[in-house]
Structures are given as C-alpha cells and as structure tokens.
Amino acid sequence: MKLGIFLVLFGQQSLEQALDTAKSAGIQTVELGTGAYPGTAHVNAAAILNDEEAIQRIRNAVESRGLTISALSCHGNPLHPDQAVAKAHHDDFVATVQLAEKLGIDTVITFSGCPGESPNSKYPSWVTCPWPPDFLTVLEWQWNEVAIPYWKEQSEFCRKHGVKVAIESHPGFLVYNTETALRLRREAGDNIGVNFDPSHLFWQGMDPIECVKALGDSIYHVHAKDTKIDARNTALNGVLDTKHYGDILNRSFVFRTVGYGHDDDFWKHLISTLRTIGYDGAISIEHEDGLMSVNEGFTKAANFLNGLILKESAGEMWWA
What we know:
Blueprint: E1 2-6, H1 15-24, E2 29-33, H2 45-48, H3 52-63, E3 68-73, H4 83-103, E4 107-110, H5 134-160, E5 164-168, H6 178-188, E6 192-196, H7 198-202, H8 208-215, E7 219-224, E8 226-229, H9 231-237, E9 253-256, H10 264-276, E10 282-285, H11 294-313
C-alpha cells in the first residue's frame, strides 16, 4: 500500500508547493481535487481538459517528485433537485473522468448524490426511517427514477474512458452504508465501487472492519480519517447530530486525525484487513480535525500511518 493525501488540504499553496509539502512528510501518492465540493485550487478539470500543456504540467509536477496520482476527486451531488447545482456537479464529473483518462488515472471519486423528495423539490431530502410510509415512497422514487438511471448512464460513460467510480459513503446521500453502496454497484454497474472512509461509518455505529470484509473488491480507494465518539452526548442524543462541527464540546461525534479517535490496534487491524480482501492501493489522509491545525493534523497522521504501513508491508501486522 501507499501512503497518500487528499491534496485539497493544502489548497492555499500552489500545486508544486503542495506536492513538496506532501513529499517531505513521506507521502507517496496524491489525490487531486478537480471540481464540485473539493474545489479547483490545484486542478480545474473542465478548464484544462483540452490544454495539453497544462495537463503535461500536472504530470511533470507529480512525476518529477517521485509521486503518483491515486485518484481524481470531484465529490458532488449530480442528483441535486436544483438543476443548476446538478448540472455543475455533473459537468465537473464528466470533465474529471475525461481528464483521468488523459492522465492515465483509473479512479474518480465522488458521492452518489441525493435528490429531493419529488420532481418539484428545491433541496435534497435524505430518508432515515421507514415510517410514516411517505418516506418509503420518496426513497423508491429517488432510487428507481433518479439514481439508478443516472448511474447506469455514468457507468457506461466511464467504461468507455477506462475509468471506475469510487463512491464515498456519506450520510445525507443515497449511498451512506454498506448495503446502499452494494445496491448501487449491483443495479448500476460493476465499475462503480467505494471510496472507503471509516470516519463516516464510526459515527453511524458501524464496524469498519466488518464493512471492509463485506465490500471486498468493490473498494477502489481508501481515506484515512478518524472519528471520536462522545459517550455522554451520544447517550443523551444518539448519533444523528445537526449541531455545527465547531461545537465540539456538545456534539455526539467529531472528526479527528487518525489515532485520536481509535487506537493503533484498530488502524493496524484495518490495514491488515484491507490486505486480506486484496486491496493494495492508497491510504489517503483527509484532515478535518477541528482541534488541530492543518500542519499539525497532517504531520501527526503521516507519522502515525507511515509506521503502520511499513510494518504491514513487512508482514508484521497480519491478524494484529
């Protein structure tokens, strides 16, 4: 496996400066943001798609530092009921897939998206329970009339360009857990898989180790981000928490740098389990820790994971 970083973390730096920062911390592979929610600070897929000089600059910047690109990321909501948002995110996805082909990258990361509750909606509507029965009517329409047709079409489009899609499971979107990820893959195309981020699973009460086993070879890419569950706040209010992420003291959970939500044993077991299902790709650091600066969180995550990946590569962590 290779230690990676979601490079949008250093969006305030130029691409070359960000790559130097990553390289100096022992990073081997980078995940580049290309549009939609991750933004275009380093790479604007739509703007450079027909600019071979700009594309070559990206290649040279990465390869000259001995790095590789693990994936292009354009996390968005192409199913958004606001057609302007949906089109913008869809266009970014299409451009990213085409850019990935030109760069020789086979993985594009995004979200499944979430429609509204009907064709007349203004905002996305995420269904979290089966009653009253209106919710199941909404869910059936969202999947059968919107998501499955859209992703079937994108699956064929991606196949023509030699690209696979890694959907990141995230509450608020139709794909948020194991069964919804596998459903989209089953119904829309087997080149649709998963960007595995354990942090989103922890706070829903899932066991990421068991999720890895169930997802198997549908895992195309992995994010390294941790979650700390606050036992008292969860006991009082459960895991569904709409308080601002900055309200750390009162939230049921917060995102943390790896190792600050779960200990070495978990992360060793996760890396070893990924190996058992045949995954040998990037472990890409994503920093969203409200208690650490960008540099502190990144440095601590890189140091923590570097040691674990080296041990895993040497066969010292099997069945840890």
